[in-house]
Design a protein that fits this description.
The protein has 74 residues and is an all-alpha fold. α1 packs antiparallel against α2. It is globular.
Length: 74
Amino acid sequence: MDELIQILESINPDVDYRKETNLIDGKILDSFDIITIISEINEEFDIAIPAEEIIPENFNSAQKLYELIQRLED
């Protein structure tokens, strides 16, 4: 989870990613941020996020994003 938080903080350091649950719905992250996050996750965790998993529910919080990463690693 710490690696993910570092990725997110490199994009927008002013957000408390451990508490925020509306990253997409609250328009904290935009589409360019999502593309950057996906790219960084692909590199850091050596996984590919399929297009069907790129939905707001999976990107609204660091916790949900981390759950997606864990699911894809298995």
